[in-house]
Amino acid sequence: MKRIMLGNEAFARGAWEAGVSVVSSYPGTPSTEVTEALAKCGDEIHVEWSPNEKVGVEVAFGAGLGGARALSTMKHVGLNVAADPFYTAAYNGVNGGLVLLVADDNGCHSSQNEQDSRFHGRSAGVPVLEPADPQECKDFMITAYELSEKYDTIVLMRSGTRISHSRGIVEEGEREEREIIPYEKNFTKYVSMPAMARKLHIAQEKRLAQIASDAGKITAGGLPVNRVEMNDPKTGIVTSGICYQYVKEALPEASVFKMGITNPMPMADIAAFASKVEKLYVIEEGLPFFEEQIRAAGIPVHGGKDMFTIQGEYSANMIRKAFGKSLPQTALDENADIAAAPGRPPLLCAGCPHKGLFYVLSKLKTTVMGDIGCYTLAALPPTNAIDTCLCMGGSIGMEHGFEKATGSSSNLVAVLGDSTFLHSGITGLLNMVYNGAKGTVIILDNRITGMTGHQQNPGSGKNAKGEAAPAVNFEELVRALGVEHITVIDPFEVKELEEVVRRETERRELSVIITRRPCVMITKQTDTPNTITDRCRECGQCMKIGCPAIEMKDGRPFIMQASCVGCGLCRRVCPFDAIEAVKEGR
């Protein structure tokens, strides 16, 4: 049976067909849908959202140790969080097959950097597979588990925004029900003490060399994972992943060495391909991972990053231009399209519970150490309320360091969401308690992991399958860490919230404010919309909350009732009571 699938759905299908029985992940765009799809597979697979990627990989490694096939998925920056167990487990090898799926984000569509995960795979010493379409997403996943168990290694499956979020026709297969591989005690393999680690490193290098030697024989879905497509010998292209699709569209006449295993690189096979073409080019998004290794091997490369950028995404038209080819008559100028498109500033949703807090912080001109979440948008006009955004949980440590450097915690806060606090904010707050910090941490408890599409977390009361689960009590958790001054408040109570923020940021002790109101996208409560009456004096206070339902029309604020969810925040900030709910019949 064939179905049109998202690349991430195809990854999930491949894992299901491969007999995976344990999945432990943390949501991160563009990888999230893989775990979401597997959560719908029923009781044959245990699927969970972990508090962070490090825990997710540790759970998956434990499941593999117990003899099951296991999977952990994450975005590229999540692999940084998981690097500690990943790099050591790469020495240990596996029992049951273990795959880590990491999705890169060239172009920073939803991320704070464009890091290239192939370097993680190379540094850790594990094979990296990189599919080029949804069918390969499924097929490569099955092959990854075969490689994992055959070569006793973790396999890193690398995706990207265009692979994960594009659709294609996928041939479905049957699930392979697998017996648990019995665990055998072996401390020299699984206890990573220095004496054992040195020997395990040697074994790791041997298996990588073997995989490189065998690469040409490894298949997925009946096709070689690495394959040569000989056409015109004048131009030879080494490429992989989504760039393979761009090359085939832009240069259909070129000969192509398509790599599916991108680490270790089969240098002997690449050299043989290079000898058959007049000019060899390397086309890869991101850093010159292929190019540098090929040049270092003494293989002449005619063009690589000297023709292309290390930034952003590529396209078929970009490749056509680089090779001096004319664009199709139907092609649009990409830069002109961007310039001509009407601007739409990114804003928090109408009714978003975070708006009240950032309105207050902006009004008080507070210095705000921000964090990773949809609330990061509060850095933009009209609130301009966030000063920094570095990494998950980083706001708390940065606030602590800022206070120690300046000697003052006055009007200084760290802000992070509930899921982010559980991900990696707890240890930062513990550090503040332990080291006698002064300052205020604000936890935005909207009862969900909002930024990546409303996944559950340990504070939401449900697990990855939507079943009831214990919910963290944030007040008790924070108090257990040693914080004495804790305030819980509805962020829409802006007058009271302003008083609380003033009081706590002037306090010469550590305090925590928990703003609690559910995400408007999960409550789905649409009350009577609001309207602006003739009492409006055009003071602009309602515009400062950054609500997408309020815009200027003929020089006056105007509420678009089709977008308004009736949350009433604008009524609370209006100093002239000029906003009211629409009366029935109007």
Provide an overview of this structure.
The chain is an alpha/beta fold and 586 residues long. Helices cover 36% and strands 19% of the residues. It is built from 21 helices and 24 strands. A hairpin with a 2-residue loop joins strand 9 and strand 10 (223-224). Helix 1 runs parallel beside helix 6 (134-151).
Features:
globular; 586 residues; 19% strand; alpha/beta
What is this entry, summarized?
This protein is α/β, with parallel strands linked by helices and 586 residues long. The chain contains 21 helices and 24 strands.
* Alpha-beta classification: alpha/beta
| Sheet having the most strands | 7 strands, mixed
Helical residue percent band: 25-40%
Report the radius of gyration as a whole number of Å: 27 Å
Return residue spans where pLDDT drops below 50 for at least 5 consecutive residues: none
pLDDT averaged over residues: 95
Strand order of the largest sheet: 3-2-4-5-7-6-14
Beta strands, count: 24
Question: Hey, roughly how much beta strand do the residues contain?
Answer: 15-25%
Q: State the helix count.
A: 21
Morphology: globular
Instruction: Report the end-to-end length measured between terminal Cα atoms.
Output: 54 Å
Secondary-structure blueprint:
Blueprint: E1 2-6, H1 7-17, E2 22-25, H2 32-38, E3 46-49, H3 53-65, E4 70-75, H4 76-92, E5 98-104, H5 118-124, E6 128-129, H6 134-151, E7 155-160, H7 161-165, E8 167-171, H8 187-190, H9 194-214, E9 219-220, E10 223-224, E11 227-229, E12 232-240, H10 241-250, E13 254-259, E14 261-263, H11 267-274, E15 279-282, H12 289-296, H13 316-322, H14 334-340, H15 354-363, E16 367-369, H16 394-406, E17 412-417, H17 418-434, E18 439-445, H18 474-480, E19 485-489, H19 494-506, E20 510-516, H20 520-523, E21 530-532, E22 550-553, E23 556-559, H21 569-573, E24 579-581
Parallel strand pairs: 2-3, 2-4, 4-5, 5-7, 6-7, 12-13, 12-15, 16-17, 17-18, 18-20, 19-20
Antiparallel strand pairs: 1-8, 6-14, 9-10, 11-13, 21-24, 22-23
Helix pairs in contact: 1-2, 1-6, 3-4, 4-9, 10-13, 15-19, 16-17
